[in-house]
Specification:
Layout lengths: L2 H5 L6 H17 L8 E7 L6 H10 L7 E7 L6 H15 L8 E6 L17 H19 L5 E5 L3 E3 L4 H6 L5 E9 L9 E3 L5 E2 L2 H8 L19 E2 L9 E2 L7 E5 H5 L14 H11 L4 E11 L5
Parallel strand pairs: 1-2, 1-4, 2-3, 6-12
Antiparallel strand pairs: 4-11, 5-12, 6-7, 6-11, 8-9, 10-12
């Protein structure tokens, strides 16, 4: 039972709920329960060899018990050395390196979808429904294969440039079902002042204007956030001023912390339209329809590598 269930329970049911929770506590005292701080880091990756050194450098900086971290990758449709590098890293961490450096688990999966898309087409609006549907399939394959008894799932993109070493503890401290930082992009010019702009437009909050836009759509209409083609009226993370935490209606997957209960309750990354969305935005919509909370931290930043488009 998650917090939203308890908070919204009718008063006449509270006594019964307390009895159920008491039995839950009683069982915990006589059984072996999973580590409440255990986290499974999940990264779907395609042709990401050039980013992996930086990826593991950031992981190594994390201020979090290594024994409580499991990590799993899904390699899809790759033709570079992504898979070979991951196998080398697995051996380095789990066999050759010192014991304190070892993850609880380090797993690599391979599932090809044979979805061929050039890098220049990656953000082409016309390609987004097919592309994001394949990404949803990849995410679902990965978490259903890799998740065991971990209590948290952390989705991390393979091509992040920077994030705080305390980020796992920081995000967990909010105790939300789903929470994301703001994903920015480094647009600093040589010898210029530091300039970060919003990278992930998939994290947003509906507004009166966006709800009006949605009301005019057909059930079969697909939406993807692309400010060049669509003026959705949604409020993106960089538009919140002086707000520590805000409820969201859509999220991206660059750095997303999820309570495992959300996935285990049947909330997947939809390949079908959920209120006009698929993949991560559809995941957020589906989570909210199932009573889970979705939140963002507008002033807490992670930095994505600079896009070419």
């Amino acid at each position: 039972m998650h917090t939203a269930d308890v908070d919204s329970a009718p008063a006449e049911k509270l006594d019964e709920i307390k009895k159920i929770l008491a039995k839950n506590t009683e069982l915990r005292e006589i059984t072996s329960e999973p580590d409440p701080d255990s986290v499974l880091i999940l990264t779907p990756i395609k042709d990401g060899a050039e980013y992996l050194d930086r990826y593991f450098s950031l992981i190594d900086r994390l201020d979090y018990p290594r024994s409580s971290i499991s990590i799993a990758f899904l390699v899809s449709d790759s033709i570079d050395k992504t898979q070979q590098i991951l196998v080398q890293k697995q051996k380095q961490y789990q066999q050759d390196g010192p014991e304190e450096q070892r993850f609880n688990r380090f797993e690599i999966y391979r599932q090809d979808f044979f979805y061929i898309l050039s890098h220049s087409q990656r953000h082409d609006f016309k390609m987004q429904r097919d592309r994001r549907t394949v990404m949803a399939r990849a995410r679902n394959y990965l978490w259903t294969r890799a998740l065991k008894d971990e209590q948290w799932v952390l989705w991390i993109d393979g091509d992040l440039e920077e994030y705080p070493s305390t980020i796992i503890k920081d995000l967990m401290a909010y105790d939300k079902d789903i929470i994301v930082p703001a994903c920015m992009e480094n647009r600093t010019k040589v010898d210029g002042p530091i300039r970060h702009t919003l990278y992930d437009h998939n994290a947003w909050q509906e507004t009166d204007a966006s709800r009006k836009m949605l009301a005019g759509l057909k059930e079969t209409d697909f939406l993807a956030e692309d400010t060049k083609y669509i003026k959705s009226g949604r409020k993106y993370m960089d538009k919140f001023k002086n707000e520590e935490i805000v409820p969201l209606d859509g999220i991206g997957g660059t750095f997303t912390l999820v309570k495992s209960l959300v996935h285990r309750s049947g909330v997947v990354f939809p390949t079908w339209l959920v209120e006009h969305e698929v993949e991560t935005e559809g995941f957020a919509k589906l989570a909210k329809l199932n009573g889970f909370g979705v939140y963002g931290l507008p002033s807490y930043h992670v930095i994505h590598v600079r896009s070419e488009t």
